[in-house]
Amino acid sequence: MIYSFNLLVPIKLVLLLIISTYAAVFVDDTQVEVFTAYLSSQSGQLWGLACVLYVAYNFALAMVVLTEYQSVGQRRDGIIGAVWGGLVLGLLVVLNYLALSRFLPVVMHYQVPMLFVAGQISITTKYIYTVVLWLGILTTAIANTYGFAQRMAKFSGFSYAICLILCSTLALPLSMQSFSTLVGRIYPIFGLLGVVILAAILWQAGKDILKRMYYNISQLFRGLRR
Fold first, then answer.
1. 24-54 in b/e burial notation, b at 16+ Cβ within 10 A?
2. pTM for the whole thing?
3. Most buried of the four, 66, 79, 95, 187, by CB within 10 Å?
4. How many domains are contained in the chain?
């Protein structure tokens, strides 16, 4: 799995950066109406919750992948990678926003708005972006399937190969659903699970910090008594 991520993720990021930058800077925006008329108050009220769930979902997904890098990386490399990864993803988010904002509210009627934007560049770019989306789906599927199959094998006692086949088979009915349906229903569920995982990690980290503080303070008082 490590080698597939090392190959697919950089390709996906480079293509996304190129297409998003070109769309945000060089593509002429379409003549559209003011987009605020298309927005509902409910969507405006839930954007904060959607952000939290999406971040929690991706955090839970990242943990599955990062556990595989424990044996091939050091703590310093992990910190540097996290910083650079955050900067690149942040830049990509800004570029995506700039590109999408040029085509509001037209893009709001598409399940994959950036695919529409890519089509405004050229039909070839649209096909390339389709491949990029496929790579994104593939890398996500690899991470999710790997993590779930590993956990299932640990608790069930079956081999990893059998659990992998079972997980892939059980996921087939969901693949028949539309992209917007999966995003609207599956992502929030995984996001809630991610929130629970984040809370558990923060709770455990807080307990460890308090234990170390208590130990250091107790050692300090013992030294003063002597």
1. beebeeeeeeeeeeeeeeeeeeeeeeeeebb
2. 0.62
3. 95
4. 1
